[in-house]
Design a protein that fits this description.
The protein is α/β, with parallel strands linked by helices. It has helices at 25-28, 55-65, 81-95, 125-135, 140-143, 146-164, 190-194, 220-243; strands spanning 7-12, 33-37, 74-79, 104-107, 178-183, 204-209. It contains eight helices and six strands. Helix 1 (25-28) links the parallel strand 1 (7-12) and strand 2. It is globular.
Amino acid sequence: MNLDSKVALLCLPCGGASATMYERWRLRAPSWIRVVPVELPGRGARAFEPFSRDFDALVEQLCLEHARVLESPYALFGHSMGGLLAYGMAALLHRCHRPPPSMMFVSASPSPASDRWRFTGRDNDDALIRDLRHYGGVPEEVFECPEMLRPALDTLAADYVVINSFHYRAPARLPVPLRVLAGRDDEIRLDQLVTWRNETLASFALHWFSGGHFYLRPHEAAVLRLIEHELGNSRRALKENTEAPSPALPV
């Protein structure tokens, strides 16, 4: 590994969203972090593709589509559903003995073992609109424009199908440092966040921000500073271990 090369940060969107939620990060991240917004089928530049309907199939597809990036130094970031997808990718790559991410960041995302990854009764527009309003993050003008609202509802409904197809098996025990980010006013309970600790054999930390489920937007600069700090520390530690002299052989 070239320790002076850039680190690719694959950023996975939340339910109902597209890769554009991370576009500004490309300009705001330090030059040594290459932000890679991950677009999911059925939205954004991939709007012509059918939505995914199966969690495991989507995870495998994303790993294949980003195979070249995953061979270089990389980290994963996912917000809400994106955190679950990041976990799925890391777990699949681990099972396949592929290079692990240098770090994984999950934001506003309950642990995969929690009971929050089940969404029922979201089979009509009224329920989907209530969720969009409840969690926030959607501009008011979207609700006033049917041409904008329809794609948002269809995307969220499809993402609920994907989430509901997820089945937790057992702790993944990933050899990956894990950082959990959360809003203090979010509905996700503390126990649903700290149980992420069971998914890693490496270091774990929980970072709080003021705000709710979409704390990420007003605290974008602080989140990027945290990512830069954590990845920088990981990078320096790896470089120091690599450059450390080997112990002398016994005479």
